[in-house]
Amino acid sequence: MDALFLSNITSPPLLFFMLGAVATLVRSDLEIPEQVAKFLSLYLLFAIGFKGGVALAESPLDFEVAKGLLTALLMASLVPVYVFYLLRRKMSTADAAATAATYGSISAVTFVTCTSYLDANGVAWSGYLVAAMALMESPAIIIGLLLYRIYQSKEERDQPELMAPGELIRESFLNGSVFLIMGSLIIGWISGPVGKAQISPLVNDLFIGVLCLFLLDMGIVAMRRLQDMRSAERGLSSLGMVSWGIALPLLNAAIAVGLAVLLDLPEGDAVLLIVLCASASYIAVPAAMRLALPEANPSVYLALSLAVTFPFNLLVGIPLYHQAVNWLA
Amino acid sequence: MDALFLSNITSPPLLFFMLGAVATLVRSDLEIPEQVAKFLSLYLLFAIGFKGGVALAESPLDFEVAKGLLTALLMASLVPVYVFYLLRRKMSTADAAATAATYGSISAVTFVTCTSYLDANGVAWSGYLVAAMALMESPAIIIGLLLYRIYQSKEERDQPELMAPGELIRESFLNGSVFLIMGSLIIGWISGPVGKAQISPLVNDLFIGVLCLFLLDMGIVAMRRLQDMRSAERGLSSLGMVSWGIALPLLNAAIAVGLAVLLDLPEGDAVLLIVLCASASYIAVPAAMRLALPEANPSVYLALSLAVTFPFNLLVGIPLYHQAVNWLA
Amino acid sequence: MDALFLSNITSPPLLFFMLGAVATLVRSDLEIPEQVAKFLSLYLLFAIGFKGGVALAESPLDFEVAKGLLTALLMASLVPVYVFYLLRRKMSTADAAATAATYGSISAVTFVTCTSYLDANGVAWSGYLVAAMALMESPAIIIGLLLYRIYQSKEERDQPELMAPGELIRESFLNGSVFLIMGSLIIGWISGPVGKAQISPLVNDLFIGVLCLFLLDMGIVAMRRLQDMRSAERGLSSLGMVSWGIALPLLNAAIAVGLAVLLDLPEGDAVLLIVLCASASYIAVPAAMRLALPEANPSVYLALSLAVTFPFNLLVGIPLYHQAVNWLA
Amino acid sequence: MKPCKRIEIVIEQPLAQRMAKLLATLNAPGYTFIDHAGGSGDRGLRRADEPTGTSTNCVFVIACDDAEITDQIVNGVRSMLTRSGGICLVSDAQWVRH
Amino acid sequence: MKPCKRIEIVIEQPLAQRMAKLLATLNAPGYTFIDHAGGSGDRGLRRADEPTGTSTNCVFVIACDDAEITDQIVNGVRSMLTRSGGICLVSDAQWVRH
Amino acid sequence: MKPCKRIEIVIEQPLAQRMAKLLATLNAPGYTFIDHAGGSGDRGLRRADEPTGTSTNCVFVIACDDAEITDQIVNGVRSMLTRSGGICLVSDAQWVRH
Ligand SMILES: Nc1ncnc2c1ncn2[C@@H]1O[C@H](COP(=O)(O)O)[C@@H](O)[C@H]1O
Ligand SMILES: Nc1ncnc2c1ncn2[C@@H]1O[C@H](COP(=O)(O)O)[C@@H](O)[C@H]1O
Ligand SMILES: Nc1ncnc2c1ncn2[C@@H]1O[C@H](COP(=O)(O)O)[C@@H](O)[C@H]1O
Ligand code: NA
Ligand code: NA
Ligand code: NA
Question: What pLDDT is stored for residue B6 in this prediction?
Fold first, then answer.
C-alpha cells in the first residue's frame, strides 16, 4: 500500500490542496477570488463531462455499462435511506435528511481527482462513469426530502411547503453543475473524436494544472470550515462531526467495495464507483437544501461533507479504496 | 448544403451555445460568473487580434487587401443609413438610430465563430479581415447619432448635448473592445512569427475551447433576453422583433454577397466579410449608446442584436452565407 | 546595446504593457476585471514558484546557491536602511519607512518578466533565484517598521501599537503572494520532473501569454496611478516622485551589479539578482503597510513603486542591467 | 422629493431569485440587489468565499412610497426570513423625483 | 457626530464614470461606489449578467454635511437621472467624526 | 418591528478582517459586508482596480438595537478610522422581527 499511498501524496493536486489548508492554518491571506474559483469548478465539470462523452462515443454502450449505471443508481437511492436512519436520533430531522441527501449524492471534484490519480498510476477507466456520476447527483435530494416529510414533527408539518414537488425535481436535476456535466457529456458524445481534437488542449492538457489551482482553493475553504466548526452550535460535538465525517464514507465505500467485487467490475471502474459512493456533495445538494429545506443547518451537512469527508477522501480514501479493490480482486 | 450545415451544427462551440440556451429554457441556475465571462470575451478579442496581426506580417498588404478594407468601410457606413430609414416609422427616432448603429457595426464573437467554422471546413481566409472587423466597429456609431440629430423632434432638440462631438468620436473608436482588437493586431504585426511562437499555446491552442465556454455563457444570456422580450414595452411586438432580427441580417448579407461576387473575393474572405455585414454589435455600440443616447431603449436595440440576430447568424447564417458564396462563385 | 534593448521592446509582454498604458492615456475603457487580474497574478506566482522548485530538484544545492541566497538577504536588509536615510528629510517618517520597505522588497512580476526576457535571449538562469525572490519579499517590512519606531515623533509614539511584533512577522512572511511562491516552490521541489510533466502545459506553455494579459492590466493600472499622481497631496512634487522612482532602482541596481561582479555570478543569475534589488514591491509590502503603518500615505510609496519604478524596470531597467553585466564581465 | 420607506434586506444568495419573484408579486415599485456580500449573524459567519455560493449573502434595497405596499413587502419578507434567516431594516428617506 | 445627509444613487454601470466626474464637479466631500449591482425598475429587469456590463447597475453613497452642496448634488443628479433612469434617495444620518 | 441604529462603515479592504474581529469583540449582534467597493475621500481616489486590493474599499452595515453596544461600536470604530481613514454613518431604522 505504501507505494500507492505515497504516489497520491506527492502528486501536485494533493500537495496544493494541503498547501491551501496550511495557508488557512497559519492565517495567510492567500485566496482565489470567488468568481474565478467558481469558474475553475465549472471548467472541471465541463472538461470531465466532455472527456466522458468522447469516451462513450468511442466505446459502445453494452451490458457492462448498464450494470455499472444501475449499481450507481441503486447506491444513490440506498445511501440516503440508511444514513438518515443512522443519524436521525443524533440531530434534528431536517439536519438528518439534509445530511442523508448530501452523502447519497457525489462530489465531482473528488471524482475528478480520482481520475487523475488513476491516470497517473496507469489504471484504465471507462467513460460511462462520468454518466454514472451525473446520474448520482440528484436522486438523493428527492429521497432526503421524502424522508423529511415522513418524519417531520407535527409543528413543522404546518409550515407551508416551500417548493412544489415538480419544482423540486426540476431544481434537483437541473442544478447548474448537474446540467453542465450532463450537457458536456452529450456534446462530447455528439462531437466525438473530431470535437475532441478541437478542444483537447483546453480540456486535456490543462486539466491537472487547473485541478491544482482549484484544490488549492478548496484546501483553504475546507480548513476554514473545519475551524468554524468549533464555534457553531449543532446537535453534534466537533469530535462527533469528525467521526461521522470519516465513518460515513468508510461505510459507504465498504458496501460499494462489496458490490464492485460481486459485479466483477474492472479495477479502475470499481475504484471510481466506490469513490462516488463514498463522496458527499458540497455543491448541488447544499444549494438545493437551502431552497427546499432552509430549516436544516448548513453548518451540519455542509461542514461534514466539505470540511471532513472531502479531505478524508482525497488524502486517505482514494488510495485506500484502490488498495481494497486490488486486495479483494 | 446539408453536409455543411450539419458540420456547423455538430461543432462544439455551437453545441455549447445551444446548451446555454437550453439551460435558461429549463431554468437551470447554470451561469458563468460575470467577471470571468467578460475576461473570456477579452481573451477572444486579444487572440483574434494577435492572430490577424501575425497573418498580416506574413502576407504583405496589396490591392486585394485595400479592396476588402474599402468594401468593409463602405458597408459599415451604408448599412446604418438604410436600416434607419427602414425602421424609423416603426419605432422612436432614438431607437431607430441606435438600432441602425447596432447593425452597421459588427459582432466580434460571430466573426470569431465564423473563423473557427472556416478552419474546421478547411477554407483559408486572410488576416486583414481582422483589421476590417476592427474598422467596422465604430463608424456606424457616428452615423447613427448624426441621423438622430437630423431627425430628432423639436422637444428632444432642446435637451443639452450629452457628449461633445470630439468626446463621442473618441468614445466610439476607443471603446475597450475596439481598442483591444486594434492593439493586439498591431502587436501581432510588430512581433510577427517570433512573438507568435511565444504565445501560440494561449492564442491558438486554447482558442476553440475558450470559445465553447464563452458561447455557453452567450447562450444563457441571449435566451434570457429573448424571454425578457415578452415583458418589455416597445414600439414593436415580440413577433415584430424576431422578424426584424432575422430580416436585417439577411438583407445586409444579401447586399454583401453581391459585393463579394462583384469584387471576386476568395471564398473564405467573402464569407467573413458577409458575416461582418450581417452581424450586429452587442458590446461596443450598446455601451456607446447608453452614454450618447440614453433615450434609446436597450430592450429594442440590444435585444434585437443579442437575442435574435446573434443566434440566427451562429446557427443558420454562417453556413447559409457560405452556401450562397459557393453557389454564386 | 541596441539589439538587446530592441529585443526587449518588441517582445509581446512589453508591447502589451505599453498598450495598457496607452489605453489609459487615450481614456479607453479597456479593463481586465479585478478578480481575474488578481487570479492572473496568482497564476504567475504559482507557475514561477513551481518552475523554480522543479529546477531546484534537478540541480543540487551547493556553494553557488548559498552565495546567491546570502547576497539576496543582505541586499534585502541593506536597501531599506539606506533608502530610509536618503528619504527621511524629504517626507514624513512614516512615508519614508514605508517607501524604504517597498524598495527593500521585490516585484515578482518584474522578476517574471525578466525570466521571459532571458529565455527569449537564450540566457540560462538558476532555479534557486526563485527562492531568493521569495526570501527577499518580507525582511524589508520588518526593517522598515523598526526604523519607523526608532525615528517616529513623540506624538506618534503615544499611539497604541497596531500589531504585536509576532503578528507583524507572521503577516510579513505569510502574505498570500509570499506564501504562494514559497509553497509552489516546495511543491515543485517535492514533485520534481514527474509533477512537472503533469502540469507543464499550464505552467510553462501558457506562461508568456498570460504574462501578456497581466501586463496589459498592469499598464492600465500603472498609468492611472501616474495620472493620479498630479492630484495627490504629498511631501514630494510629481517631478520629485518620478526622479526618485528612477534614481532608487538605478542606485540599488548599481550596488547589486558591483556585488554580482565581485561574486562572479553567471550572466543570467546576475541579471535576475540585480532586477530583484532594483525592483520594488507593490503587492506584499503595501498590503502589510496598510495594516501596520496606516499613517503612511499609499500615494507616496505605492505610486513610486507601481507607477514609476515598475514601468522603468520593465522598459529600460532589464535590458540596461543586462548590458551592464555583459560589459563588466 | 417625496417621502418613502427604504427597505433593506439581507438574505442568502441561493434565495435571491425567490426574493426577486416575491418582490415582483408584491408589486414593489423596483429594487436593487448587490450580490456577493458576506456577513455574520445568528447562523454564524458567512464568508462569501465558497465557489458554490452557499455561504454568500445578497443585499436588496427597495424604495417604496406606498404605505400599503410597504406593509405587504415587510410581511411577505418576514415570513421568508423566519425560515431561512437574514435581516430586514426599514428607514425613512426622501425619493428624488426625476 | 455631526448630522449629515446620506445620498444613495443607483445608475447604470456605463454611466458610473460620468457620475463620479459630476460628483467631483459638485464638490461632494467624498463618495463610495459599489459596482456590479443589479435591479429592476421602470426600464425592466437588469440582471447584471452580461459580459458587456450593459445590464449592470452601480450604487453610489455620498455623505454630505453641507446643505447647499447637498442641494446641488441632488439637482445635478436629478437631471442626469431624467434622461438615463435610475433612482436617488436622501436620508438623515449622523457622521462619526474621527 | 423594533427601533435600531443602522451603522455603515467604509474602510479599506486590507483592514476588513481587523474590522470584523473588532465587531465581534464589541458584541455587535451581526454585520453584513460588501467587498470590492471603490470611492473617493480625503486620501484621494480609490478605484478598486488593482489586482492587489490596496485601492479597494469594503462596506460594513450593522443593525444594532442596544444603545450601549452601539456606542461601543461607534467609539471602537472611530479610533480605527482616525488612523486609517474611511467613514462611519449612523442612522435610525426599524428592524423587522422574524
Ligand atoms: N445585526 C445585523 N446587522 C447587519 N447584518 C446582519 C445582522 N444580523 C444578521 N445580518 C446579516 O444577515 C445574514 C444572516 O443572518 P442570520 O440569519 O442571523 O445568520 C448574516 O450573514 C448577515 O449578513
Ligand atoms: N423603487 C426602487 N427601489 C430600489 N431600486 C430601484 C427602484 N426603482 C429603480 N431602482 C433601481 O434603479 C435602476 C434603474 O431604474 P429604472 O430607471 O426605473 O429602470 C433599477 O435597475 C434598480 O436597480
Ligand atoms: N463623504 C463621503 N461619502 C461617502 N463615502 C466617503 C465619503 N468620504 C470618504 N468616503 C469613503 O471612505 C473612503 C476613505 O475615505 P478617506 O479616508 O476620506 O480617503 C473613500 O475611499 C470613500 O469610499
Ligand atoms: Na455518495
Ligand atoms: Na453589421
Ligand atoms: Na528591491
Answer: 56
Tell me the three cell numbers of residue C223: 498609468
Q: State residue A4's pLDDT score.
A: 53
Mutating which of B7, B14, B18, B28 best tests the A interface, going by the most A Cβ atoms within 10 A?
B28
Contact between chains at F54 and C302 (C-beta distance less than 8 A): yes
Nearest chain C residue to A119 by CA: give it.
Answer: C198
DSSP state of A308: I
pLDDT at site C164: 79
Burial class from Cβ neighbours inside 10 Å (0-12, 13-18, 19+) for residue A25 reads: middle
CA-nearest of A8, A68, A79 to A277 is A79
- Considering only residues C169 and F34, tell me which one the structure prediction assigns the higher pLDDT: F34
> Could you please report the per-residue DSSP string of E53-92?
STT-EEEEEEEE--HHHHHHHHHHHHHHHHHH--EEEEEE
pLDDT digits (tens, 9 = 90+) for A228-270: 887 777 778 889 999 999 999 999 999 999 999 999 999 999 9
Closest C-alpha among D60, D74, D65 to residue D26: D74
- Residue F62: CB within 6 Å of ligand 1? yes
Distance between Cα F39 and ligand 3 center (Å): 6
Is the C-beta atom of F30 inside 6 A of ligand 1? yes
What letter does residue C161 receive in the DSSP assignment? P
Chain-wide mean pLDDT for chain F?
92
CB D87 less than 6 A from any atom of ligand 1: yes
Closest E-chain CA to B231? E44
Q: Is E46 in the pocket of ligand 2 (CB under 6 A)?
A: yes
- Kindly list the protein residues whose Cβ atom lies closer than 6 A to any atom of ligand 3: E 29-32, 61-63; F 10, 39-43, 46, 57, 85-87
Is the pLDDT confidence value at B65 over 50?
yes
| E93 CB within 8 Å of a chain D CB | no
Taking CB atoms and an 8 Å cutoff, what residues of chain B touch E57? none
The set of chains that have 3 or more CB pairs under 8 A with F is C, D, E
Residues 6+ apart with CB under 8 A from B107: B279, B280, B281, B282, B283, B305, B309, B310, B313
Residues ≥6 apart with Cβ < 8 Å to A47 = A184, A202, A203, A204, A207, A210
The residues, any chain, with a CB within 8 Å of residue A65's CB and separated by 6 or more, are A126, A128
Torsion of CA D59, D63, D68, D69, to 10 degrees: -60
Most ligand 2 atoms within 8 A of CB, residue of E87, E88, E91 to mutate: E87
Identify the pLDDT of residue A236. Answer: 82
pLDDT tens profile C66-97? 999 999 999 999 999 999 999 999 999 999 99
Is the reported ipTM for this assembly greater than 0.90?
Answer: yes
Planar angle of CA B307, B308, B312, nearest 5 degrees: 125
Between the alpha carbon of residue B149 and those of residues B96, B286, C30, C252, E85, the distances in Å are 12, 18, 28, 59, 21
Report in angstroms the alpha-carbon separations of B221 from B42, B288, C85, E46, E49: 17, 20, 58, 12, 7
Say whether residue F73 is in contact with chain D using an 8 A CB cutoff: no
Which value, to the nearest 10 degrees, does the dihedral of the CA atoms of residues A49, A52, A53, A59 take?
-170
Ranges assigned E (strand) in chain C: none
Q: Min CA distance, B44 vs chain A (Å)?
A: 14
pLDDT tens digit string along C231-288?
Answer: 777 778 889 999 999 999 999 999 999 999 999 999 999 999 999 999 999 888 998 8
Mean pLDDT confidence for C26-36: 92
Q: What is the distance between the alpha carbons of residues E64 and E51, in angstroms, rounded to a whole number?
A: 34
In short, whether D92's Cβ falls inside 6 Å of ligand 1 is no
Which pLDDT does position B4 carry in this prediction?
Answer: 53
Are F30 and D41 within 8 A, CB to CB? Answer: yes
